[in-house]
Amino acid sequence: MSKPEIECTRVRACKWQGGYSDLTKKLNKKDTKKYGTECNDNVCPKCECKTMYEIKNT
Ligand SMILES: [Zn+2]
Question: What is the pTM for the complete model shown?
């Protein structure tokens, strides 16, 4: 078992922890329109928020 690398910033509401490869890709409509090419954000698989904390293994 590997340790979780990141956790959702909504630690109270969501509590998701996992690795970068567990993140879900979500189409970023604003950037897709802006750049004219498909842009995706890596989001929390539970609540779809975009910001993650890095978990420091001490
Ligand atoms: Zn989350």
Answer: 0.81
